[in-house]
Inverse folding.
DNA sequence: GATGAATGAGCATTCATTCAT
DNA sequence: AATGAATGAATGCTCATTCAT
């Protein structure tokens, strides 16, 4: 009788079990974008909407909002691990990948903060592990006697660079990150994701 | 039409206008604590509660969220300015005061971030000014040829140290901050407020 | 980071999506009642409470205050259109339906006011359209040379009758409305909703 | 230490008892303006501010928000009484004054509504009396056999004209009011306050 | 008598999470 | 397994009213 939004609407196809992994990936990608745009405080509904799924699906894949954040970070960490394990990898190159993540996503910055700092409320129990994984991955590439060889120096430096970058406008971040590494007298390779975009 | 506060209610003491400055101070102190514990996203009601005043009082003193944060930061900045202007001040000493604020208050860290980074949404228009004030105060003490003399290096370093500290547990902060300055090869004096607590 | 709904709480039945149309209707009905009793300024929470739904549901169905009001008016307008389009309809009969709405709901009166008067802030953009719809519906039934045929006279008269009725006690409204039409020398049919209640 | 609004501020002169009547008048004038601009829902603080007095003064003169509204209406009613009692007064002239008030102030319209309609919640007990006073004043001028002579017709007509005007944009009100009187076949004199502004 | 700060209830709105379908 | 409606607690903010000075 009155404008009824449900009238004549048609539910999207239920694509069955096959869609599950695709949905999970879509959710993570969506979260990355949304976090980058609105910060970690963004409504989960925005993530679900951008992923093109119902909110229920999100809760099927991630028990709560922190799990979503952790999943995003997990992917970032994998890239760092991948970069560090790649044939011919060296510290500068891996730090370039780390730096790319720092500059690319405000969310990553914050997550790494929570993390790297080793304090605060761990993000869903993952945080510490993730930080440790980054450290392990990078340490493998540390030449003996490197500036960052002393205990704790490596991750401390990463957190410092992230400090140089948080809150900065998107377009300033890479410049600031590089300036920060320079101030630390640490050499960094090209700032890019892993696997590096072709070229 | 009129609201009807039910009978028998007893209002807490209204201490009259005399209490206004006390309330304002209490609000800032409360904000400092609450921000330190819960971060800048903390509910304003928590601040009002801790200050022991009604929410209305808070809104009388500060028009919005950001004004509260700005008031907290303002105080911090004054300390830095004071330390830098004190007779016999030197850069190391002033950086010690800056560092004290970084370790003492999560709020200061975040605010300075917003600020120093020069991006994001300025906190109520104050942020930039405050950051500039810190920079001006410190620069005055920079010996020529100092490591941090190059343009932008000073505040970049501060933001890096703050990055080393955000998210860390309270008791780790000072240690981490000092390690960060060391990694930057910058000398820092005693970490303390200004005026320094006796001793 | 996650909110922590304390244990042991028991949610009322969630009746699932099936309830959506029912809820929407309940909200409109509740709004009609509440507006009639308390005027358009009534708290939305009162509407939600009377409809027996959470406030969130209301915001799902109606983005803001005005949308609620518009939905109520929309229904009224449909009735007028229906009455005017019914076989054998004449102006007096349609005005009877209009009058019924004026006497029945303080909300309708106010909304139509906002509307008919052509000024103020249109209610969510709907107001003007709705008013125009009423006018179009009624004008179709205007015999040539009718008292209300001159431009603007029709809706002006409606707004005048509504003026005779606003603020009056429920039980006086019909009498006052009829007296008003008489003063305007306009014939009005039985005051009743459309479709007319049997008999 | 921090920006303290109370620092260095100076209380306005306390002008003693002499100021009381002036304050009362200023409050009523302020209320008239504020209500005209923002409607009856306007914050009392806005009225006090515009009157240039503290809120306490307002509460000294008027026990609550309704009393303020009543005071405004009271003044309007006095004007109508004055116009009706003036030498050489006639109905058309007095209705012109009534109409002026209807068009001049949205607040008056609403107040008269509450009033004239004889229902709703009387405004602070005044409403009914005020409406009656208007009626008494005008009835005195009714020539026998006038269109509005029948019982109740007079105030009904006034409320109808007010209905024609509520919600209309300021600049349309006079036109609409005159159109309404014309539709009622009632003659109205110049639309102006009483005492008429010179000329 | 005047001032304006303090109080806190009240309302709009948002969003994490659950759950019927 | 997916959908998206429902729930309601939480939070920001406003404003009537009181009251110390």
């Amino acid at each position: 009788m009155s404008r009824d939004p449900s009238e004549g609407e048609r539910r999207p196809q239920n694509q069955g079990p096959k869609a599950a992994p695709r949905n999970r990936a879509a959710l993570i990608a969506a979260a990355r974008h949304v976090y980058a745009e609105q910060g970690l405080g963004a409504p989960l509904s925005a993530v679900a909407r951008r992923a093109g799924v119902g909110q229920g699906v999100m809760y099927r894949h991630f028990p709560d909002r922190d799990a979503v954040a952790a999943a995003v970070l997990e992917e970032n960490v994998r890239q760092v691990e991948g970069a560090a394990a790649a044939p011919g990898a060296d510290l500068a190159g891996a730090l370039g990948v780390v730096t790319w993540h720092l500059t690319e996503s405000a969310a990553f910055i914050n997550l790494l903060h929570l993390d790297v700092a080793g304090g605060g409320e761990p993000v869903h129990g993952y945080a510490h592990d993730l930080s440790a994984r980054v450290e392990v991955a990078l340490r493998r590439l540390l030449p003996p006697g490197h500036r960052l060889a002393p205990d704790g120096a490596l991750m401390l430096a990463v957190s410092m660079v992230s400090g140089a970058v948080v809150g900065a406008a998107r377009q300033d971040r890479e410049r600031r990150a590089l300036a920060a590494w320079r101030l630390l007298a640490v050499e960094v390779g090209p700032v890019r994701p892993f696997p590096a975009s072709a070229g």
About this structure: Chain C touches chain A at residues 1-2, 20-21, 24-25, 28, 61, 71, 74-75, 78 (CB under 8 Å). Chain C has two domains: 19-61, 65-183.
